[in-house]
Amino acid sequence: STRGTFASGQTPSTTNTIMYVTISSLGGCNDFGDLSAAMTNSNDGCLSDNTRGIILFGSPSDISQGSLEFITIPTRGNSSAFGELSVARRHAASMASPTRGVFATGKNDSLGSYLKVIDFIIIQTQGTAITFGEISTNGREQSVGAGNKTRGLIAGGLENPTPYQSIDFITLATEGNGQDFGDLAANRFGMSSMSNSTRATFAGGSTPGNSDTIEFVTIATTGNATDFGDLTVARTVGQGLSDSHGGLAT
Q: Do 189 and 154 meet the contact criterion of CB atoms below 8 Å apart?
């Protein structure tokens, strides 16, 4: 509820760095610790409850693709092994309730396949993810996830060369396939996503050109996304977070 963390990426070489910010203040990132290995393409495979963050390894052609590591957010230190997804992949959409973390869709580089699968974990345990269901449409990567403690959303994505604008929803406490929620205003992938208990927002991404669009939906309803505003700069594959998302108990 106070800190946001960012892990891995490119500088332009891959990095194992974990950094944190205090969400209620302004300023740059501070050092948190390190992942067990350098990687990129973890986005959007990160989620949390109020104390623990889960990070998905996504580097292409890496034997660790699909592995999960965890950190304890109120402290600082290196990540530890958590488990792995039921099917290795990168660019998964992620979301959480106060107990469950969910990873949906993604691309398996070894198989060259775009996946529809939805997995879940219990955040405060460790182990291999369990199959939850599948999204309602084609497999894809670079979708994004958001939600509150009851409902998760999976938005946009890419099945190269085809981008998507569809949004699915799931009920986090159950298991089953995704259902149609509505659409983004345009086909988009590689967005940033964030949410509170009421709204989910989707920012930036590619259409396939970089976008500055920010849209929002009301999580408890269904329907198409509505314009929120614009980013200061058009960009893709950014990362978003908030201090009141579904993985928090409030």
A: no
Q: How far apart are the C-alpha atoms of 90 and 67, rounded to whole Å?
A: 10
Q: pLDDT tens digits, residue range 169-228?
A: 999 999 999 999 999 999 999 999 999 999 999 999 999 999 999 999 999 999 999 999
Alpha carbons 18 and 16: distance in angstroms, whole number: 7
| pTM check: above 0.90 | yes
124-138 burial: b if 16+ Cβ within 10 Å, else e = eeeeebeebbbbbbe
Q: Strand, coil or helix: what is 108?
A: strand
CB 86 within 8 A of CB 131: yes
Q: 163-179 burial by CB neighbour count: b if 16+ within 10 A, else e?
A: bbbbbbbbebeeeeebe
Separation CA 98–CA 103 (nearest Å): 15
Burial class of 50 by CB neighbour count within 10 A (0 to 12, 13 to 18, 19+): middle
Q: Is the pLDDT of residue 10 over 90?
A: no
Torsion sign across C-alpha atoms 41, 115, 153, 236: positive
Nearest to 145 by CA among 44, 41, 3: 44
Angle subtended at Cα 173 by Cα 188 and Cα 70, rounded to the nearest 5 degrees: 70
Amino acid 5: pLDDT:
94
**Span 222-249, pLDDT tens digits:** 999 999 999 999 999 888 999 999 999 7
Distance CA 92, CA 190 (A): 10
- Of 95, 142, 96, 147, nearest in space to 115 by CA: 142
Residues 105, 101, 74, CA angle at the centre, nearest 5°? 130
